[in-house]
Amino acid sequence: ANEAPPDQLIPFHHELAQVKNPPQYIFFYCDQPSETGGETALIDSTLVYRYANDKFPEFMDKLKKFGARYIRTLPAQDDFTSPIGRSFYNTYQVKTIEELEVKLDSVQGLEYTWLSDGSLRVVSEPIPAVRMTEQQHDHSIYQWTFHNSVIAAFIGWEDCRNDRKQAIRFGNDDPMDATTLKSIAKFMEENKVSYKWKKGDFFALNNRLVMHSRNSYTGKRRVYAAMFGDAIGSTTNPNSPEDHSSTALSKVPDPTTFGFWRLDNPEETAYNAIKSGYRRLDSACDYGNEEATGRGIRRAIEEGICTRNELYITTKLWNTYHAPEHVPLAMEKSLADLGLDYVDEYLIHFPISMEFVPFDQKYPPEWQNLEKKMVIVPNDINKTWGAMEALVDSGKTRHIGLSNFNCQKIRQILSIAKIRPSTLQIECHPHLCQDKLIRFAREEGMRVSVFSPMGATSYISLDMATKNDVLFDNDIIVELARKHNKSPSQIMLRWAVQRNTMPISKSSSEKRMKENRALFDFYLSQEDVDAVHSLNLERRYNDPGVFCEAAFGTFCPIYE
What is the pLDDT of residues 350-380, one digit of tens each? Predict the structure, then answer.
């Protein structure tokens, strides 16, 4: 490890956070522990982010927008009396000044000056200082982190060449407020966990999520460190078509999704949802509001809130349009209503094929034909999928997927698919955890989006659930909300995110919209996740095997 003098604290930092591609992992090995002190202190970077964001929102907004620039003077020879005394040769891993200048000149925005004593003053290019860690090794993380060396520079970059108070600035060259930095540093010191080394100890640190420091010490201390990037190929699923994994997730990395089922004012709601930050939008012809939804989307685009390319829009093929000749007609109708040239994703809404209802006689057709009867018809769903694939070929949709399919029905599609399903959408909430189905879909390369992530609420007015089913007042959910200083909704949505699913929520309230997206400044421990999971009752609220017979006189089980 690059040891500072024993009597000096090494401040909290993410290793090499002042560069654009810091290492993902730090490995430590203790060969000789110190006599006293010398602990490696750790702190959760998301905890620091939340403190700073809650207490100093304007500071954090600038840090997110502009990043940070680091100012440091490096000597020509290693100075072992200084905590930042590494030479510029050692720092940049070069042997000559000419080689160093070539390396520095290649970095856009970086500035450097040679001083009269032979030392080098470097002002870094603007470096991102707040990072969203999204997925690692196919696990959902989705946490904001205070990923920088700002506090380390402010506290520790002091020696005969450097003034720590001049060591950092915003990426736009504005100064950073010292009082704010002192408060963040104090919070970190008060909330750290210090690890006392024993000879032979070894541990690995996730440098994206955890900051570390070193306490002062007496005696000899030898702790070795190594830095590594991510594991090769760690995020590649061989079942995921390349276009599915590379565009659908990277285009809108935020998993929160806004749904349009049963909305009173879909045009205004669509506009407000986009204004509140949602970029994943989940629609369907059966919702009966795609024209209004499309107007809200267009308004947001016209006002410059977003571009079309920044949105990921999903709609769905209804049950009456499963015949291959009807699939493109249904797609064209949804596109016309939404006012779009293409959608990002088109899903088969249910594995239920029903009698065709002409578009000009009843739209949306809902569950009954013109004689008010629900009529199930024979259909080869594989041919329906073939017609869906043709929509990708024609550019009408970028991706195709499934909704409300069970494992065996998914296997049927996979057995003939030329284009594999991109997504499986299912009902999922603490009363219906769906562990096996989610695992199966993920292993087959599909993302999983989940509707009704907060359970029964939307179904009470339809007599498909009762007030006793509502989860917002559940003791476990309420206690977790208190523990994390979050709402019950946020606990359930965060639980969904950490299970590697994309929760679809809705609200007519802008305040609630924003609240339902504020999921990335905290996380649930494994104990928290298990507590929510303990509420599982295998209770399904949206079940055609129940409501179709009760409402339409047709027995239509699909999940058994």
Answer: 999 999 999 999 999 999 999 999 999 999 9
Rounded distance between C-alpha atoms, residue 514 and residue 274, angstroms: 10
Residue 532: count other Cβ atoms within 10 Å of its Cβ. 24
- How far, in Å, CA of 502 to CA of 494, rounded? 10
Token pair belonging to 101: 């200048």
Q: What is the pLDDT of residues 289-324, one digit of tens each?
A: 999 999 999 999 999 999 999 999 999 999 999 999
Confidence of residue 246 (pLDDT cuts 50, 70, 90): very low
Q: Which H or E run includes 322? A: none
DSSP symbols for 52-108? HHHH-HHHHHHHHHH-EEEEEEE-SS--TTSTT---HHHHHT-SSHHHHHHHHHTST
- What's the pLDDT score for residue 243? 42
Which residues lie below 8 Å from residue 252, measured CB to CB, with a gap of 6+? Answer: 279, 280, 310, 311, 312
Strand arrangement of the beta sheet that strand 10-13 belongs to: 10-13, 210-214, 40-44, 193-195
What pLDDT shows up at residue 245? Answer: 39
How far apart CA 7 and CA 463 sit, in angstroms, is: 69
Residue in the block written with tokens 């909330």: 191
DSSP letter, residue 245 = I
Q: What are phi and psi of 234, to 5 degrees?
A: -70, -20
DSSP 517: H
- Candidates 89, 271, 287, 523; catalytic one: 287
Structure tokens at 271: 């506009």
pTM for the model stands at 0.90
Read off the pLDDT of residues 63-117 as tens digits, 9 standing for 90 and up: 999 999 999 999 999 998 888 899 999 999 999 999 999 999 999 999 999 999 9
Average pLDDT of the residues in 127-136: 89
Q: Which residue has the tokens 């993920």?
A: 442
Collapsed DSSP state (helix, strand, coil) of residue 490: helix
What pLDDT shows up at residue 274?
Answer: 98
Q: Which of 120, 121, 78 is nearest to 97 (CA)?
A: 120
Contacts of 482 (CB under 8 A, 6+ apart): none
- Using the structure block, give the residue that is written with the tokens 């928290």: 528
Task: Give one DSSP letter per residue of 369-438, joined into a string.
Answer: -TTS---B----HHHHHHHHHHHHHHTSEEEEEEES--HHHHHHHHHH-SS---EEEEE-BTTB--HHHH
Q: Report how far residue 181's alpha carbon sits from residue 183's, in angstroms, rounded to the nearest whole number.
A: 5
Q: How confident is the model at residue 248 (pLDDT cuts 50, 70, 90)?
A: very low
Q: Is 70 annotated in the active site?
A: no
Cβ neighbours of 163 (radius 10 Å)? 11
Token pair of 481 as six digits: 């909300």
Phi/psi of residue 503, nearest 5 degrees: -75, 135
Distance (Å) of CA 451 to CA 272, 413, 487:
20, 22, 19
Cα separation values, 345 from 185, 269, 522, Å = 45, 21, 30
Cβ-contact 152, 168 below 8 angstroms: no
Which helix (DSSP H) or strand (DSSP E) does residue 134 occupy? Answer: strand 131-136
